[in-house]
Amino acid sequence: MVSEDRVQPTAERFSHDEIEYRDVIVYDQDGRARTSWVPRASDTLLRMAKSGQIQEVMLKAGLVFRHDFARAHLVSLRAFDIERAIQSFGTLARGCRPVAENSRLAAIEGSRNRVWRALYALGGIGSLGGSCVWHVIGLEESLRDWSTRQNWNGVRVSPQGAPYVLIVALETLVQVYRIREGE
Q1: The pLDDT of residue 156
Q2: pLDDT for 80 beyond 90
Q3: Which terminus of the chain, N or C, has less C-beta within 10 A?
Q4: How is the chain split into domains, by residue range?
Q5: Ramachandran area for residue 68 (φ above 0: left; ψ -120 to 50: alpha; else beta)
Q6: What is the rounded CA–CA span in Å between residue 104 and residue 72?
Q7: Which residues in the chain belong to E strands, given as ranges?
């Protein structure tokens, strides 16, 4: 039963994927933080793990890919933070970056390299598995949305077949990330 203080999804939203409520921090007009419950689409990987469709090692591999994807800043385009340029102008003008900035950029670059290696192992971003992992795990789209838009070599991917594409891709990611049972 949903309590009255939660934001209720629209009737249209209920017709799509499963909905779960998550705790998020929101800020009011005065800048005070408070906790709020908001409806969100259920996570595909967690839902598949709960139902037994994927093994624990496959879930871990998917979560590693998602973490690398987010850390590589591949999730979405963002505007450049002008404050960052102003704060580090003096250091950048002399041709070097602060150590903290170098380690942050190195972490981002390392994550990007791991994402590209994983996609290469899946056959590239244009392959069926690569596209599925990019959209479903990286961008966190639903399998249904991905499959209805997907047209691979002139063949549509059915919503019933999409989970199998993801399962095979996750098996490949387990090998790429060298994840073993019980780790």
Answers
A1: 83
A2: no
A3: N
A4: 1-42, 43-177
A5: alpha
A6: 10
A7: 19-27, 33-41, 151-152, 155-156
